[in-house]
Automatic annotation (TrEMBL):
The gene is thiH. One of its GO terms (biological process) is thiamine biosynthetic process. Pfam families: BATS, Radical_SAM. This is ThiH protein. SUPFAM superfamilies: Radical SAM enzymes. One of its GO terms (molecular function) is catalytic activity. Residues 256-414 form the Biotin and thiamin synthesis-associated domain. The keyword S-adenosyl-L-methionine applies. It comes from Nitratidesulfovibrio vulgaris (strain ATCC 29579 / DSM 644 / CCUG 34227 / NCIMB 8303 / VKM B-1760 / Hildenborough). Its cofactor is [4Fe-4S] cluster. Keywords: 4Fe-4S, Iron, Iron-sulfur, Metal-binding, S-adenosyl-L-methionine.
Amino acid sequence: MSFYDELARWPHETLDALIASSTADDVLRALAATRPGPADLAALLSPAAMPYLEDMAQRAHELTVRHFGRTIQLFTPLYLANHCTNQCRYCGFNARNHIRRDQLDAERIMAEGRAIASTGLRQLLLLTGDAPRISTVSYIAEAAHRLRPLFPSIGVEVYAMQVEEYAELVAGGVESLTMFQETYNPGLYAWLHPAGPKRDFRFRLDAPERGCLGGMRSVGLGALLGLDDWRRDAFYTAMHGAWLQRYYPATEVSFSVPRMRPHTGSFEPQHPVSDRELVQILTAYRIFMPTAGITVSSREAAAFRDNLIPLGVTRMSAGVSTAVGGHAAGGDGNVASTEGAAAAIAASTAISSGDATGDLSGRSTKVDMTSGMAHAVTEDLQQGADAGPSQFDISDDRSVEEMVSAITARGYQPVFKDWEPPQDNVYACGAAGHADGTVRCEAR
Ligand code: SF4
């Protein structure tokens, strides 16, 4: 099996025509659908949906509260290394960029882990560049194994692996995998990845499925928004998620919505995504897959992230550093890159009060923030140039404490841990779960 075959059924000419022909009636039908299909998804992502963003926000909010309650999980990334053999044109870790390369040893891994754990966080995302001979599978599994006593939930965002390699990570204590396809356009993908193992479009496309087969409890997908026409990439991402959920129902599927950020290099996205368009994507994902997790990272500005909370987000990063060793070094959020950066955020029409006006559709409606609904209308933010070895600049550098306050202020509950590996469980009867997933009652 492979999502590749499903993708082949949706050549971009067919998809573009479907999106362009979507009407207001199609959007309204999609909003009312109990099980939206591909045509509904296309309608929700189409220009015809733009006047209905407010309705999409209301529907997304209702579905999210029904399936997740008013909760936001918090996590933070830990960069183990920035060595990379690829030449992705849009990334600061690109092998051709002259940045300081680094990899954490066991002592520094634990220093990072302790610094993060001291903030209260219990969910961790381990990242490396794509350098399998340096950041080997065993190295990543060993890092997870060491960090497990501090973090019940550990995910990875690393290079594409084989099934047995994912299984090795799972045995080390990893439970979730995030794999960004970047773009589902094979021609553009080839241009964006001129050299290195990541150039293999199909191997990467099938990686989430291999993660499911390797035993990952949760698999996250995403396109790097801004690389190609965002409507196409958002459609293919959502279809990929639905395909995985159909064939691997035991695996939890989630989406991320990363937009291109400034980085070390000169690449400029050809299809920038506005805030309103990002809201359209996020709410379309939620309506299409009501039970999927949705992550919004610190790439987005603080005020905008806060306003997204009621619209379908289930997971947010906090206390972020995208530099190797950044947390133990003081963790100001962007460590090596903020120093020397030009002026940071230039402008934002952040909505923070209960009486903001202007809604997602552009109609001038008074907004009732007390009901928990936010209407995220902000100006795009401008960010200064990167000056150091972080993968990209972040916009929201708030600490964990500040994120907790922001989430609580919206009437939501920040969640530090919602899962525990079975081997650590001790049940009321005295039974303990074991690594093989069985539960043996010790009391008998
Ligand atoms: S996106 Fe990943 S694989 Fe590509 S250059 Fe950056 S770190 Fe390397």
